[in-house]
Amino acid sequence: APAAPAAAAAAAAATLTVLFLTRRARAKRGKYWRHEARQAIEKPSVETAPSVPVPASGGCAPSSFPSDEAVYYESYGSGHEGGGLGRRVDLDESSSTLLPSTGIVCVARYKETHEHLASWATAENWAQATAVHKTAFFSTREAPAQEALVEHIRQHYVSVPRREMVEPVSATLYRLSDMDDYTALLASVRLTRIPALVAGVFDEEREPCIVDFANKRLGGDPSDPQPVSQPTRTSRVSLPIHPPSRIGGAFASYGFAQEEIMFVQRFGLAALCMKSLLDMPSPVDNPGTCSRYVMTPSEAWILQGGAAFCKTPNKWYGKIPKDWSSGVKLLDPTADRDSTPMIVAMDAFRAKGMERYDRRHLDLMLRKAYVAFRGARHCAGDPPAFVHCVSTGAWGCGVFKNNHRVSFVIQTLAAALAEVALTYHALGDGLSLGPAIAFLEQQLGGFNTEGAPITDVMDDLEGLCSSSDDWKTTWTKDPPPQRKY
Question: Domain boundaries in the chain?
Answer without folding.
Answer: 3-471
